[in-house]
Amino acid sequence: MKAQHIVGLLFTIIILSVGCNGENKSRKNSAPVPVKSASTEKNDGKNEIVDATQSDGATPEQLAKAKEIIASVSKEEVSSINAKKLYKMNCGICHGFKGNMMINGAKDLTISKISLQESVAQVYFGKGLMTPFKGVLKDAEIVAVSTYVETLRK
Ligand code: HEC
User: Fold this and answer.
1) Ligand 1 pocket check for 128: Cβ under 6 Å
2) Is 141 exposed, middle or buried (0-12, 13-18, 19+ CB in 10 A)?
3) Rounded distance from Cα 74 to ligand 1 centre (Å)
4) Using an 8 Å Cβ cutoff, are 130 and 93 in contact?
5) For residue range 3-56, what is the model confidence (pLDDT) as tens digits?
6) How far is the CA of 25 from the centre of ligand 1 (A)?
7) Which of 51, 77, 76, 69 lies closest to 119, judged by CA?
8) How far is residue 128's CA from residue 141's CA, in Å, rounded to a whole number?
9) Among 54, 72, 57, which Cα is nearest to 143's?
10) How many angstroms does the Cα of residue 88 sit away from the middle of ligand 1?
11) Using CA atoms, how far apart are residues 140 and 75, in angstroms rounded to an integer?
12) Cβ 108 vs Cβ 100: under 8 Å
């Protein structure tokens, strides 16, 4: 009888320890799930940080360069440019032909309030996901297209 009790106890211990191992394993298996969701949260956080830096305005150096560009181009040259066509070809892909499409996080140009100087700085140097147009468009074209986007405002 006593021996049977001991065997029974041993079995119970073995079964319990196997059960515990099983639980531990299942806990280990489930562990990566919260870690994964935590890393997704971290990614979200990173995106927010990127957005925060993108919302900063142009630097003083960029604004100074924009002022220089605006001063250097003649009104005649700017008005001789088909800015609407330039806009459709270079900007429409993200902003849409009416300025409010907001693809790739592009800002809605119909509610934009920034100055011509700030727009020129942004088009010339780019910002966040917006590509720089320095070397792509001539200075007069950058001024023309930046002037044109103001006509899209409500
Ligand atoms: C690749 C997509 C893309 C293209 C092409 C593009 N933009 Fe943008 N644009 C953006 C994004 C993204 C923003 C917002 C940038 C930020 O603040 O992070 C933006 C913002 C702007 C702003 C600032 C609006 C505000 O109120 O702050 C202006 C002005 C602007 N774009 C004009 C233009 C013009 C003009 C062109 C064409 C010469 C152009 N964009 C081409 C993506 C684009």
Assistant:
1) yes
2) buried
3) 24
4) no
5) 666 555 545 444 444 544 444 444 444 444 444 434 334 444 444 444 434 447
6) 51
7) 69
8) 21
9) 72
10) 13
11) 9
12) yes
Q: How many Å lie between the centroid of ligand 1 and the Cα of residue 123?
A: 7
Rg of the chain over Cα atoms, rounded to whole angstroms, equals 31
Average pLDDT, whole number, for the chain? Answer: 79
Do 145 and 95 meet the contact criterion of CB atoms below 8 Å apart? no
- CB neighbours (10 Å) of residue 95? 25
User: Which atom of ligand 1 approaches the CA of 87 most closely?
Assistant: 37
The two structure tokens encoding residue 114:
């920034």
CB contact at 8 A, 153 and 111: yes
For ligand 1, whether the C-beta of 93 sits within 6 Å is yes
Residues 6+ apart with CB under 8 A from 45: none
pLDDT in tens, 31-45: 444 444 343 344 444
% of the chain exceeding 70 in pLDDT? 64
Residue 112 above 80 pLDDT?
Answer: yes
- How far apart are the C-alpha atoms of 78 and 81, rounded to whole Å? 6
Q: Which atom of ligand 1 is nearest to the CA of 137?
A: 38
**76: pLDDT strictly greater than 80:** yes
